[in-house]
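User:
I study polymers; will you set down one protein's sequence and backbone structure tokens?

Assistant:
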Amino acid sequence: MNVPPPGRPKAGPVKHGGGKADEPSSPPFPERGAGGKLLLCGDIGGTKTLLGLADDGGLIVDRRYANANFQDFASLLASFLADTQTDAARIDGGCLAVAGPIADDGRCARLTNLPWHIDCDALSSRFGLPGLRLVNDFAAAAMGAVNSSAAHLLTLQRGEPLPGAPCLVVGAGTGLGMAVVLPQDDGWRILAGEGGHVAFAPADAQQMALWTFLQARHGRVTWERVVSGPGLTAIHEFVAGVNLPPDEIAAQASVNPEGAERRSLELFLAAYGAFAGDMALACLARGGVFLAGGIAARLLPLLRQSGFLAAFNAKAEHADIAARMPIHVATDPLLGLQGALHLAPRHT
């Protein structure tokens, strides 16, 4: 079931090559794969970009860059090719996952939280690259999740997986992403969605009070206003009257089980479970539910102890269906990069 489509390299072990742009480079890339054709893959977010090169065995080098150090994506790509000492003529295709809307023709994109415009034709002209595929970053994360190895999946609920059934991938981070993934003979079909912008449905009196708090601020209250990094900050402001960044809330919650930060995180994780369960029920995701995005992976110890699963399975007359859905946390730090690799076309 977790087989990439024919013509794509299988996801293999990643040989990390140094990561951040300001760190010393690893040995020049050509020493690890001289002469062969390569695929370029990227995961381009609002604050950081991951770029990688792959051969038929999977990713063989990757780098992480802070976007603030570059004027545009073309400059970042030029730095990557120089850092890895890669001749662009060896690149035979690729896929860039972009945190922003893709044009209808699939040839250009604008990042939502960064004034970058990525144009495939311009990149081809400057670097001599073949046509690259642009996809939404969560589509790549979804593809990476369903193709993850067992080593990069942590099971929260074993369930009873049903072969051939849809899978659901949800991910809380800066926003709240969602995609339904359908198995096909040649791999997977991704149906991206905007479930994060569905109206928030309070499950109890505390969540109703949270809705009132957020409604006064935003008007319409969506799930993304609650289940996201900014949502966790807003929840803590509701609980404790203090505005803290999500990482600080999580850090304090892990060391003080009686503090306001833990109460905020419990409220957040219960809402996350309810959202994931509702979306899973909507598409009958008996193939499995995968939690992507950075928040779930960072909160693993607390996630297991929280009300996430109870909220996921609290589906009244359909609770038995929810309980039969496997739930996994995708922990691969290169999830989006691996997903872009699976979506990359070759041009040979």
